[in-house]
Amino acid sequence: MSKMPSPSAIDATTSVVSLGNQFPSDLIGVTGDTPKLTWQVQSSTAGTEQVAYEIEVSDSITFAPLMASSGLVTSSQQLAVEAPGGKLSSREIRYYRVRIATQLGFTAWSPTLTVEAGLLEASDFNAKAVGNVSKHSDAAPLLRKEFELSSQPVKARLYVTSQGLNEMSLNGLKVGDEFLSPGWTSYHKRLNVSTFDVTHLLTKGANAIGAKLGDGWWRGKFGFMNMYDNYGTNIAVLAQLEVELEDGTTQTIVTDESWKTGTGSLRFADIYDGSTIDLNLAATGWNKAGFDDAGWSAAVAYPVDSAILKPRINSPVRVIDEFVLKLKQQSDRVLLVGEQNISGWVRLVVDGKKGQIVTVRHAEVLEPGEKLHTKALRTAKVTDVYVLDRDGRHVLEPEHTFHGFQFADVVTEAEVISAVAVAISSDNEIRGTFHSSDVRLNKLHSNVYWSARDNFVSIPTDCPQRDERLGWTGDAQAFAGTANTLFDAEAFWRSWLIDLEHDQAENGDVAAVVPDLISLNPVPPAEDAGWEVMGRAGWADAATIVPMAVYEHFGDKDVLVQQLDSMRRWTDALHNRRNGAEFLPTEFQFGDWCDPDAPEDRPWLSKVSADFVANSFFANTLDLMVEAEHLVGNAEGVAKYGKLRDELKANIWAKMGEEAMSTTAGLSMAIEFDIVPADKKQAAADKLAAMVVADNGRITTGFLGTPLILHAMSKNGHTAEAYKMLMRREIRSWLYQVDQNATTIWERWDAIREDGSIHSGSMDTASDAQEDPSMISFNHYAYGAVIDWVYRNVAGLAPVKNKPAYREFTVAPKPAVGFTFAEATIATRFGDAAIFWELQATGDLAIQLAVPFGTNAVIDLPVTAGSAITINGETATNGSTLGHGDYVLVVTKPAVLDYK
Ligand code: BGC
């Protein structure tokens, strides 16, 4: 490496340098943690590998002078590489670039990555949190302030957070493109601060800044107990606008009691109930300079602990899609028919007269007679109301709320002109795409994608429509692997996991919902039914399962380092709960929740016993703990948890094994969690497959068993039986939902029955506390966890466990009868891994494969005794490893599974 070849000497470029493992690429105002860079390399020269890298950092975009350089580091690492220069301080802007050397020489420098830190110290905040004296459900507080800038701004940043929701504006224009800010966190322990570049929104002379607040998760109606004021009785915004001017001076505008507060058209806004906008009461021009606020009051300051203000690390909620709604005029209303169940709202265009009222109600499904099915929403009103202020055309959209819906109806004397469904979600980048010759399977993929979109609204929720929308940890752990296949969700999970730890009890128990709203409520739900929500099996285990799923898919140990303490505390809490006994005590568990054979109104009474579920998930958590301790290099932890695990697994097998073998969920857990001894595993898988065949693929598992069952079969020689279950179309199957025109994944397999009737959802939670304890949703992602299996087996792309983030992946498509092709792409941190396979008229299986630079693909193709394999025309064998590049693989006489 002594002689440096010229950059153009080799056919490779270093591109797309990002902080991918830490933050979404478009985020400014990040934490001060030393940036960890990830880069992608393009090279069309086969066999080249990164042998060294060099990173430069500067506070000048010209890289002169340099702040630091890594020097030439001999390493093949290109993911989450700690950059030279160390931590950032508040507001600091730095520029990074990378070049690499392959065996053939150096690439040119990469495009420049700009990193800007937010406000990192409590002492950086001079602003106070201000609001008015309103109560929950009152008109939304507006807050405003005018200020003069002595010359043109050259750089302006707005740092903002709030207790309650905020929407900021400058000179009448919305700041940024986020909604429901600052999102939902464990508010008493962490308030997220957004940073916006607002240079373009300011001007020399008079300016005005405005804040429109909402009750949101802070004090709006929330939780199935319908509580208000969960986090506090007052809502308030804390904003700090820092402006650098052309004349070299700086100016800072902060929220304080000098701001004025009033109200406008937004008379009511609640996440569950919807919003009411009376346009006659609009405070026109309130967020522009020159507005007469003489009648407005002085803002009221509320205490906030600056130590809990933290830069937001995940993507905000944004509009991610729009769908035109069809209008159907009915005698008493206009029905709006959508093609997709979404989270969001209706943008409605009407022609009307002053004083006319427009009421929009929403639902996921229609009842006979094209009536909205609103029973499933329980007490959530999900209704937006508008009062028109003049004759003519109006474009109407609700504020500070969102609804889970596919259909809506409008009751009004005004004429409805058009309607659009506006879909929102945490704006995680799409990572996986899948397509095959089976249209129903493609639709299932789309339904899972949408359930993830609709339920990733700031946090991972159970459902987006009824009076719930909570961060149920069980649902999250069930879906985490699939979520990470579909989306770049690393920062999304890392943010949520911070709150999981914040809300962990003193004894280490993890909450069933994060943020833990239930513990904030004085009455635990369904107390008299013996419900316990802290530390429940399969729910609290999100503490170990989610971090490991993030590591497997994105490859940076930081998520484990971040969560290690939380993971250990939860694992130790489980051990302590045994109090010296072999097993966990028999207690209320959610069990294999929603087992379709459980009594409809008692979904926790799964066929597999609560004790087996609890101890098996404990064993799995110990397994994950051992792995995590190994990865962070703590041999003591490996030994400690390894011993507990081995003892526990042996005990479970000895005393509960027989029982587990009698249920599909029990078998799936025993196989997937390695509770069944290695020499008995095949027999267990054979039994499971036989039970599935006997049931004709009918699903017999709930939230915990369903994500495991196909893997438990296919990893043990029963892929055909897994297909049988996947491709079943009769009731109790994924494709039954597709045939019923579902556009998202249901909470219960029979949410809509074969006769078209809708499940009542009735629940026996034996509690007076909840008004209407029914439970039926058409948008719960837990059962959508199957899609991870589809990527790994139908398309055939799977990350290798010990080489995470697809640094190594297997290419193992399993074509089945009825399929002619399948394709999938995973946008890995290294670039796109892609497969397209086709069963050709000749009977050959032809595969196009793209392997990104920095990764390897291991070939495991479906062969029969008479098969021959070629790769780019050359004879090859299974087990071959392929470096980066594009390949054509052909298998003659391939194995095609007959599952029918
Ligand atoms: C939620 C589920 C959740 C369960 C646990 C339900 O109300 O919607 O998804 O995991 O409760 O009890």
Number of strands: 49
N- and C-termini, Cα separation: 59 Å
> What small-molecule ligands were found?
beta-D-glucopyranose
Q: How many individual helices?
A: 15
Q: Could you list the spans in which at least 5 consecutive residues all have pLDDT below 50? A: none
Largest sheet: 10 strands, mixed
Approximate helicity band: 10-25%
Describe this structure in words.
With 900 residues, this protein is an alpha+beta fold. The chain contains 15 helices and 49 strands. Strands 20, 21, 25, 26, 27, 28, 31, 32, 33 and 34 form a ten-stranded mixed β-sheet that branches. Strands 36-42-43-44-49-46-47 form a seven-stranded antiparallel β-sheet. A hairpin with a 4-residue loop joins strand 26 (326-329) and strand 27. Helix 10 (664-672) runs antiparallel to helix 11 (678-694), helix 10 packs across helix 12 and helix 12 runs antiparallel to helix 13. The protein is globular. The protein starts with 11 loop residues before the first strand and ends in a 9-residue tail after the last strand. The mean pLDDT is 95. Beta-D-glucopyranose (BGC) binds at residues 462-463, 468, 472, 474-475, 590, 593, 775, 780.
